[in-house]
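COMPLEX REQUEST
Ligand: magnesium ion
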Amino acid sequence: MITTIAKLNEHIGEEVKLGVWMYNKRSSGKIQFLQLRDGSGTVQGVLVKNQVDTKIWDNAKSLTQESSLYVWGKVREDDRAPSGFELDVTNLEVIHIAQEYPIANKEHGVDFLLDHRHLWIRSERQRAILKIRAEIIRSIQSFLDKDGFSLVDPPVLTPSSCEGTTNLFHTKYFEEDAYLTQSGQLYMEAAAMALGRVYSFGPTFRAEKSKTRRHLIEFWMIEPEMAFVDHEGNLEIQEKLIEHVVQSVLENCKLELKVLGRDTSKLEKIKAPFPRITYDEAVDILQKAGVDFTWGDDFGAPHETLLAEAFDRPLFITEYPTGIKAFYMKPNPNRPEVVLCADMIAPEGYGEIIGGSQRIDDPELLEQRFQEHELPAKDYAWYMDLRRYGTVPHSGFGLGLERTVAWICGLDHVRETIPFPRMLNRMYP
Ligand SMILES: NC(=O)C[C@H]([NH3+])C(=O)NS(=O)(=O)OC[C@H]1O[C@@H](n2cnc3c(N)ncnc32)[C@H](O)[C@@H]1O
Ligand SMILES: [Mg+2]
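STATUS: Structure written out below.
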């Protein structure tokens, strides 16, 4: 019966059949060692010349890197093997002899690997990253579903902006102008008035002409939105969520974290509550550290790194100046020049992974913000209705999936965190 490498522990001593690709091999003349993978894991197939038909031996010899085959063999425990098992091969059937594989088992440049991303994702490292990405998604949804959140899907084609008009992706919607969504938030606010606690999970788009290790043009965001939850309640949900996600990856992705060589002791420390400093306190820290920084400016990556390095878990920076934040953010009632928002800054220099805030729930103030931000009221008439018909205090946040994956995996660049990265000057493959 055909099984998978991940389930070999259920078949110790048994003869099994696997569908695999051979990603490497070595031979001692009388024994061939086939490095096999099937997407669920890797195992070494051992072929002994005098124990199989010549035809099987020759078929094995003909295998090239990434050739596909069925292989039969007896599962044998071997604690020297990463998976704990080896396969004593008794038969094999070639499915396809791969052409000369472009990604040889050696170093390649980033652009070459990105040009071959459709093949690069087969490598053990990239597979490990994508498995951890999948676990992060699973654990986020599990946490939110258990906490009474409902998944709601916002539109991707939208008539207006949410996060400013400088990085909108414009397209045509028949005769009308349309924009790829920057954030599902505004629609999540409508959904929260219907279902209480909701979240969206999907691609979002920012035409940002910035080539940094944190920015993608298309990235995936999880956007929870909660009716009757205030600023502090928002932070508490975020820190519990991140604690749960990190613990889930530590529990369920041990092998993948080992493949990446990730120092998991740093992840073990990620426990709520997370430290909170205000924007004012952050400015004070920077200025005392000799950084030339003016109140009212936004933080850049170096500032976030310096501020976070004093902490071993994510840091909330709260209450930024109203003037540098989005139109929808609720001002602090006692100090209107700052808003009830927070960025969550990951440790180890990974920067902002979450942006969130309490939303303006006062109709007059929101009308005023549309004028201040020169936003066409007609495009937001539906959004104003949320304040005309039973407005309530509500808050939410956007978790950037790729930046979270980069931090938890300990990666240098977000391009490895998404199956097919869209970056400045790259939309292929
Ligand atoms: N529902 C909400 O309240 C979300 C809110 N409307 C929003 O979009 N906030 S954000 O612009 O800070 O983006 C949120 C997160 O989205 C990530 N982000 C934001 N922009 C990017 C780019 N360009 N590449 C990768 N990741 C990005 C990053 O982790 C940010 O913290
Ligand atoms: Mg932000």
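REMARKS: Residues 162-163, 183, 185, 206, 208, 215-216, 219, 221, 223, 352-356, 396-398, 400, 402-403, 414 surround NSS (ligand 1) (CB under 6 Å). The CA atoms of residues 213 and 412 lie 7 Å apart.
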